[in-house]
């Protein structure tokens, strides 16, 4: 299974509650550029899992609008992938998807969760450098993953 783990695009710094922060114009551009990159990286995505926070949902919306990659018609929004989400629960869910034959998964989330998830999947800390809009690609066989690459937008 290939897992694409993306940190949301750049977001405004202030909102009444963290979950309500929106993308900046720069964050929208980052998401669009990553959609173009995803077109080259994968011809289809079987599952999309997105944090319910505004900035993550907006990132996915702009990414999906700018990619030619086939995306599922529905996305899963999940509290377990919010900033302090549960990487163990996410790995268990990904294990089930892998057993079910799912080939490509995109997760749009936040720091520190994205770093925690990469570490859990690869069983060791990885030096991804998750700046906003970064996508890490992992080849994972249900037990241990291999970190393939990290894509940082050039915006």
TrEMBL record:
Swiss-Prot/TrEMBL GO biological process terms: regulation of phosphorelay signal transduction system
GO terms of molecular function: protein histidine phosphatase activity
GO cellular component terms, semicolon-separated: cytoplasm
Gene3D superfamilies attached to this UniProt entry: Phosphoglycerate mutase-like
Origin: domain of life: Bacteria
Annotated Pfam families: His_Phos_1
Protein name: Phosphohistidine phosphatase SixA
């Amino acid at each position: 299974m290939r897992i694409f783990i993306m940190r949301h695009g750049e977001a405004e710094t202030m909102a009444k509650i963290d979950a309500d922060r929106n993308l900046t114009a720069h964050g929208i551009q980052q998401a669009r550029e990553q959609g173009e990159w995803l077109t080259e990286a994968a011809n289809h995505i079987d599952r999309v899992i997105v944090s319910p926070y505004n900035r993550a949902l907006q990132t996915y919306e702009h990414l999906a609008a700018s990619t030619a990659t086939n995306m599922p018609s529905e996305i899963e929004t999940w509290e377990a992938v919010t900033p302090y989400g549960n990487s163990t629960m996410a790995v268990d869910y990904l294990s089930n998807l892998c057993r079910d034959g799912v080939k490509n998964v995109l997760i749009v989330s936040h720091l520190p969760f994205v770093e925690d998830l990469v570490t859990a999947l690869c069983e060791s800390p990885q030096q991804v450098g998750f700046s906003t809009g970064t996508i890490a690609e992992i080849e994972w066989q249900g037990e241990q993953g291999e970190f393939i690459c990290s894509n940082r937008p050039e915006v």
